[in-house]
Amino acid sequence: MEITRENSGEMTATVKIAISPAEYTENVNKVLKDYQRKANVPGFRPGHVPFGMIKKMYGSAVFADEVNKLVSDALHNYIAEEKLDILGQPLPNMELTPLFDWKDEKEITFFFDLGLSPQFDMTLDDSIAIDYHVIKVNEELLDKYMVDIRQRYGTMSATEVAGEKDVLDGEFVELDTEGNILENGIANKSKLMIDTVKDEEIRKSLVGAKQGDVISYNPAKASGNASETASLLGITRDRAENLESDFRFTIQEITTMVPAELNEEFYNKVFPDEGITELKDFRERIRIESEKAFTADSDHLFMHHAQEKLLELAPMQLPDAFMKRWLVESNDGKIKAEDLEKDYDKYAASMKWQLIENRLIKDFNIEVPDDEIKDYVKDRYLPGWRTMPLTDDLSSRLETLANSFLETRHDEVRRIIDGLFETRISALIKSKVKLHEIEISYEDFVKLDAEKH
Asked: 10 Å Cβ neighbour count for 240?
């Protein structure tokens, strides 16, 4: 086998692979003989079909498969041995590759185009300043959080008239098209939280209701969610998806959430063993926790700024013509050439950032251990498991679930791994550059973040 490479541009090259009959004939004949042993052709005993007939029936397909394997492996090994840093994948050059007939058993030549990765300088230190927006919780937002947490720690109490956030206990009975109770229809006692009703008109009809009131409406329309409808009516999700009936809802009890009182007992429930006795100290503690919760949002926007800054500091040129061709050919018609022209700058920026990420991963030895991937999957099945006293049985089941996930859901696993790498890269950049901290209200942060997306 002869493999040569010739530069076709500043950042592109063409690889020529020439294979002789001796390199592919043996494998082709071996596969065809295996077909001969297994072939079941009318008029011949199994295993006795003439080889010439087998070759005529399957030779073209077998030849194509075996030669493709041989060429693919050779190209892959060549790129690895030559330590070529390429973009995307090699593309067949059909203009240079001559037509051939598999029956001729002569030397075959293939040509492949490569896009070569650009070389660029990369520094990451405190000489680089990047904006980092610190979200501050103002008094108005803090008041909202205080209402929410008092509701969360409140107690349920019976009330006479339903408010917007109250819970209605009652019985649902399915109706026919004329508004009468449907024989053998759905009937179920359930709790309805008014603020979960998506349909505004139906929600307004429930506010102000009293015990004993009867309200007819379509639960599927009200929720707009098949799973919520199924839970409310005690039916399967599949049945809920096709449900069109109205239901008669008879209200049997109304309960409302009475917010927790602002006292030391409440403060201690929320923040045990911290000895908070004053409202002002409690509010400040809530403010601190709320601002911590916004760190992920700040980090997300920070990475947008970091991408812009590092791309600016590490200019690089891509082999644009090759990249456009690769994007079109590798996406099975999902990307059209005319659409790509409009959006190419975005694709190019994404590719350049990926090159910077790969450089950071290599230069700083960033790794994601297998155990961490598995632990992340376990978090999805049982949040908080790390701090739980797990039994041997539960631990074993969790391990089995995680292993099954990793073995069968490859696309999701790839996304998890990418996310874990991104988290590490974000932490690395934050630790190396100078953070230009800017205090900002949550409202202004939302506006700023929207501008970046």
From this structure: 21
CA distances from 323 to 336, 345, 358, 406 (A): 13, 11, 18, 32
The residue written with tokens 């043996």 in the block is: 26
Q: Please say whether the beta carbons of 313 and 120 come within 8 A.
A: no
> Residue 221: which residues within 8 A CB-CB, separation 6 or more?
199, 202
Taking CA atoms, 253 is separated from 168, 212, 249, in Å, by: 6, 8, 12
Give the whole-angstrom CA distance, residue 292 versus residue 299. 11
Other CB atoms within 10 Å distance of the CB of residue 36: 20
Q: How far apart are CA 319 and CA 351, in angstroms?
A: 11
Could you tell me how far CA 224 lies from the centroid of its own chain?
A: 24
Q: What is the pLDDT of residue 158?
A: 93
Alpha helices in 257-391 (DSSP H): 264-270, 279-293, 295-313, 320-329, 337-363, 370-381
Residues β-bridged to residue 110: 17
CB 347 within 8 A of CB 322: no
DSSP character string of 135-151: EE--HHHHHHHHHHHHH
Low-confidence ranges of the chain (pLDDT < 70): 102-104, 453
Strand partners, 332: none
The whole-number pLDDT of residue 453 equals 67
Alpha carbon distance 425, 423 (integer Å):
6
* The pair of three-digit structure tokens given for residue 89, joined into one six-digit string: 């994948």
In contact, 166 and 194? CB cutoff 8 Å: yes
CA distance 59 to 39: 14
- Do the Cβ atoms of 442 and 137 come closer than 8 Å? yes
Contact 216, 251 (CB under 8 A): no
Contact of 357 with 412, CB cutoff 8 Å? no
Q: Which residues of 396-424 are buried (b: 16+ CB within 10 A; e: fewer)?
A: eebeeebeebbeeeeeebeebeeebbeeb
The most distant pair of C-alpha atoms in the chain lies apart, rounded to whole Å, by 97
For residue 403, how far is the Cα from the chain centroid? Answer: 19
87 — alpha (psi -120 to 50), left (phi > 0) or beta? Answer: beta
In the block, tokens 């998806």 appear at: 241
Q: What are the structure tokens assigned to 262, written together?
A: 């602002």
Closest alpha carbon to 253 in 156, 187, 174: 156
The Cα 74–Cα 3 span in angstroms is 9
- What are the chain's domains? 2-116 (3.30.70.1050), 155-258 (3.10.50.30), 294-451 (1.10.3120)
